[in-house]
Design brief:
Blueprint (H helix, E strand, L loop, with lengths): L20 E2 L5 E4 L7 E8 L16 E9 L2 E8 L3 H9 L15 H5 L14 E5 L2 E5 L6 E3 L5 E4 L10 E3 L4 E2 L6 E7 L5 E6 L5 E7 L11 E2 L3 E6 L2 E3 L1 H6 L4 E3 L5 E7 L7 E5 L7 E7 L2 E9 L17 E9 L5 E5 L4 E6 L11 E7 L11 E6 L5 E5 L5 E2 L3 E3 L11 E8 L3 E8 L9 E5 L9 E5 L5
Antiparallel strand pairs: 1-5, 2-33, 3-4, 3-34, 4-5, 6-7, 7-8, 8-9, 10-12, 11-12, 12-13, 13-14, 15-16, 16-19, 17-18, 19-20, 21-22, 22-23, 23-24, 25-26, 26-27, 27-28, 29-31, 30-31, 31-32, 32-33
Length: 469
C-alpha cells in the first residue's frame, strides 16, 4: 500500500498487517505486574487492510483489537482483525471496495453479484471494545456490534436477541451503571433524526427504550449518566448521506443554532430538560453527577466540528480541553468553564464512580506541538478536588493511547488503582504502561513490551475476570 498521501496513516497511525500471539516468554516485562490484576486490557482501532479510496480522519480503517491478558502476575498478548462482512468482501476481491463515512462509494454490481456485502456504509467495528453480560463486543456507532470470543475471534453481528432492528445503529460509547450493572446506550438511524436511549440489564437483556425526536440526525458520539439522568450534547454538527454519496463534504457545522444539552430521565418518565448555550462540539464525557439541584458535567470541549473531507484543513487538530459544566435544573442556567489548558482527549474515570461525585479524571494528553497529525505523548491526571493537572510524559516522540482506570479490588480509594494505556516510542517500541493512579511522579510500575507495533487507536477497556480459557 502507498499511504504517503494520508497524514493519519503515517508514523504510529500506520496499520499493521499481521495477527500475532505472544506468550510471556516473548514479551519483555519491566517492573512488576501487580498480582491482583486478573482480566484483560483491550483496545480497538482503525487498521486499513487495503489502499483506501479516501482517508482524512482516522475513522474508516477496519477494526483491529489488541489485547494483553493478565493472570496471577503473568501476561499474554494477541491482536486480531474484526472479521466484518465488509472486510471479508474486500479480501474476496483483494482490493478496496468501500469508501468512507466522508465519501461513500456505490458498491460495484460485480461485488453484489458475487455475494459481497451490498451496503456502501462500512461497519468498521473499529471504535470500542466492551465486556458486558459476559459477552465481548467490538463496536462502531453506525451499525450493530460484533460479538467476539475471548480469544478475539469473531462470532458475527449481534442484535441483542432482536432488540436491535435493521437500520438501528448502536452507539460505540455506552456507560455502565456501577449500582445496577445496567448498560445505558443509544441507537440512531441513518434514515431519520431520532435518538433513542437503550437500557440493558446486567446480563445484557434489553429493558427499555426511551425515544427522543430530533428534526435532524446530530453527530452524537457519547452520553453521560448521573443518578437520575442521561445527558447528551446536541451540537450543531450534522452528517448528510446525500452529500456523501455525491462526493461532497457531508459534514455540516451550523453554529448559529447553538448547542443544546439534554437531560433525559433515566426511568423514562417525565419531560426532558433542555439547556441551551453557545456552540461547541465534544466527542467525550469524563464523568457527571448531581449536586445541590445542579448537574455537573466534566467533558472534553472542542470549539467546532473537528473533521472534514479535505486533506490538510487542520480542523481535527483544533484545541481540545477539559471543561467543567454546571447545569442548574431549576433555572436552566449553563455555566461552562475551562478546567485545564492541556490538549487532551479520551477522558476516563474510575468506573465505580460513574455518575457519582469523584476526584480524578484521566485523559490522553499532550505537552508538545504536532506536525501533520495530532496525537498524545502523555497520560494526564485531572484532580477535580484540588484543580491540579499532572502529566506523565512518555517522551516527546511518544504516542500514548486512551488511559483506562483499573480498580484495585482490595481498595475503594481512587488513588490505589492503576491506569493503563498502550504506548509507542521510537526507542522502546510498543508497550502497555501500568501507572499507579496515585503516583504520577515516578512513572509506570510495570511495562509490558510487545515485539510488534501497536498502532494508535480509539477506545480501550479493562475486562475484569476475562481469560483465554
Amino acid at each position: 500500500m502507498d499511504l504517503s498521501a494520508y497524514p493519519y496513516l503515517q508514523g504510529n497511525y500506520a496499520p499493521v498487517a499481521d495477527e500475532s500471539d505472544f506468550s510471556e516468554g516473548q514479551l519483555t516485562i519491566e517492573g512488576k505486574i501487580p498480582q491482583k490484576l486478573q482480566g484483560a486490557f483491550m483496545r480497538d482501532g482503525a487498521n486499513v487492510a487495503y489502499q483506501p479510496n479516501h482517508y482524512v480522519y482516522p475513522l474508516d480503517g477496519d477494526g483491529m483489537v489488541h489485547a494483553v491478558y493478565f493472570k496471577d502476575g503473568h501476561v499474554q498478548y494477541k491482536n486480531r482483525w474484526v472479521e466484518t462482512n465488509h472486510l471479508k468482501t474486500e479480501r474476496q476481491f483483494d482490493r478496496a471496495i468501500y469508501g468512507s463515512v466522508g465519501k461513500l462509494l456505490p458498491v460495484p454490481q460485480e461485488v453484489i453479484d458475487g455475494g459481497g456485502e451490498p451496503s456502501p456504509i462500512r461497519n468498521t467495528a473499529n471504535t470500542n471494545i466492551i465486556y458486558h453480560g459476559e459477552k465481548l463486543f467490538a463496536m462502531w456507532e453506525g451499525g450493530f456490534p460484533h460479538l467476539l470470543n475471548n480469544d478475539l475471534s469473531t462470532v458475527g453481528l449481534y442484535d441483542y436477541d432482536g432488540a436491535l432492528q435493521a437500520g438501528d445503529a448502536l452507539t460505540a460509547h455506552p456507560k455502565v451503571c456501577p449500582d445496577t450493572g445496567q448498560l445505558v446506550s443509544c441507537t440512531q438511524r441513518w434514515d431519520n433524526g431520532n435518538y433513542c436511549v437503550q437500557v440493558f440489564d446486567a446480563k445484557g437483556k434489553h429493558l427499555k427504550a426511551i425515544p427522543i425526536e430530533f428534526d435532524r440526525k446530530g453527530i452524537i458520539h457519547d452520553l453521560q449518566i448521573t443518578k437520575n439522568y442521561v445527558i447528551i450534547f446536541y451540537a450543531p454538527a450534522f452528517h448528510s448521506l446525500e452529500k456523501a454519496m455525491k462526493g461532497e463534504d457531508p459534514f455540516l457545522w451550523e453554529p448559529e443554532l447553538g448547542t443544546k444539552i439534554i437531560a433525559i430521565p433515566r426511568d423514562g418518565s417525565g419531560k426532558n430538560i433542555v439547556f441551551e448555550t453557545d456552540p461547541f462540539f465534544s466527542w467525550h464525557f469524563c464523568n457527571g453527577f448531581e449536586q445541590g439541584g445542579k448537574i455537573i458535567i466534566d467533558y472534553i470541549w472542542i470549539s467546532s466540528i473537528p473533521f472534514s473531507t479535505a486533506q490538510g484543513s487542520g480542523v481535527e487538530k483544533q484545541p481540545r480541553r477539559m471543561y467543567r459544566m454546571s447545569l442548574d435544573i431549576g433555572t436552566k442556567k449553563v455555566t461552562n468553564e475551562q478546567f485545564s489548558d492541556i490538549f487532551c482527549e479520551f477522558s476516563r474515570v474510575d468506573e465505580r464512580r460513574m455518575g457519582k461525585d469523584y476526584r480524578y479524571g484521566f485523559a490522553a494528553s499532550s505537552n508538545r506541538d504536532w506536525g501533520d497529525a495530532h496525537g498524545y505523548n502523555c497520560t494526564g491526571r485531572y484532580d477535580f478536588q484540588t484543580g491540579e493537572t499532572k502529566l506523565w510524559e512518555f517522551g516527546a516522540d511518544a504516542n500514548a493511547g486512551e488511559p483506562v482506570y483499573v480498580a484495585n479490588p482490595d481498595s475503594e480509594r481512587e488513588e490505589d488503582g492503576w491506569v493503563m494505556c498502550f504506548v509507542y516510542t521510537p526507542d522502546e517500541g510498543a508497550f502497555l504502561s501500568v501507572l499507579c493512579a496515585g503516583d504520577f511522579d515516578n512513572g509506570p510500575v510495570a511495562k509490558v513490551k510487545i515485539p510488534t507495533r501497536v498502532p494508535n487507536g480509539f477506545h480501550a477497556n479493562w475486562m475484569q475476570g476475562l481469560t483465554l480459557s
